[in-house]
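Record filed here:
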Amino acid sequence: DVLIDKETDSLIICDANSRRVVRWSRRSGTTQGEILIDNIACFGLAMDEQRYLYASDHVKGEVRRYKFGENIGTLVAGGNGQGGGLNQLNEPRYLFVDRQQNVYVSEWANQRVMKWNKGATEGIVVAGGQGAGSALTQLNGPLGLFVDTLGRLYVADYGNRRVIRWTQGAKQGTIIAGGNGCGAGANQFNYPFGLSFDRHGNLYVADYSNHRVQRFSIE
């Protein structure tokens, strides 16, 4: 995962194979990065409006919040071993942090997305959690996340080749892109990975095995 830190004009990168999070200036002439966090099996990154950095550790099954300059961080989700309990995470992947510092986590092994309210000791299932499958109540390898200002959750549903939206309190999601089998058509994905929105409400999806980024207008 990669973040752009506009305040320092730098990239914050999850360097997973080296078990660290690093920052690289985008200014010309930069020859090396700066290690922000080490000894972490990182996967997902997020930053809140107070410039706290969040990172998921998919081996420890936890998410921590960091001030710049500290290496230990504060536990904000999981941390009770890998598992399927509400106080556990199992292979946490991507993160989204809202303005209230609530943390959303996609869990690869539990086939769910969890919301951990700030200060909570356990999470709330907000999507999936019904085992791997293609029903609208299920996910199959959830990855990239986004939550809009109305609290609607968007999930890159990797194995189902779709992006699915869950409104607050919903028991099932709605397919908003893909879901038409594996392929290279404009209405298809071949393993959607990450997603994001621009300020005009357009959805961008990294379509991994098609080696492309797709843009969708979402109503």
